[in-house]
Amino acid sequence: MIVVGYLLWALSVFAIAGGIAAAVIATRLRRPVVALLAVVPVGGGLLAAAFRLELLPEPHAFGVVLGIGFAALGVLAGNPLTVYVLDLATRDTIRRGAHGGILIRREGTGEEREVLRGGTTIGYLERAAIVGSIAVGHPEVIAALIAVKGLGRFSELESSAARERFIIGTLASMGWAGACALLVALTLG
């Protein structure tokens, strides 16, 4: 039985490393669909947790390695996965700006302007904060994070397209980070 535990742990590390590699490749090649491979280790971990399967061998270091891997997945894979969800939700209705935001038309003037710039960087920081706060047992930090993010973007949310994209992107990013953070907390005990 001990050998099975080590094999499952090694398979988990391999799957997590593959998910991280897929996330990096998806980001670099701007092919967010590749990041769907990162869902495999997270989905497997969530299923194992749901069925209360004890898969980690002793010592605690094995759990720490998996926890670090899930944390990395939570932060890195969140970007291409969020882009993928946003692309599915807003097919061909949103044009991207030169600085990573979206282009919207002002009512009345018809003038285009770019809003929601910096979303990629904000997303990485947001996911790192979520994973970290849940890993150390302080999920209340997420409420402050949501408040700061909403207040910071409030002036850019005048158009329905910007509001829709903001809400979908935030929910996809935070949902992914939360799932990975749960796995971090479970593997660290």
TrEMBL record:
State the superkingdom. Bacteria
Membrane as UniProt keyword = yes
- Could you list the residue ranges that cross the membrane? 6-26, 33-51, 63-86, 166-188
Enumerate the UniProt keywords alphabetically. Answer: Membrane, Transmembrane, Transmembrane helix
Supply the name of the protein.
Answer: Uncharacterized protein
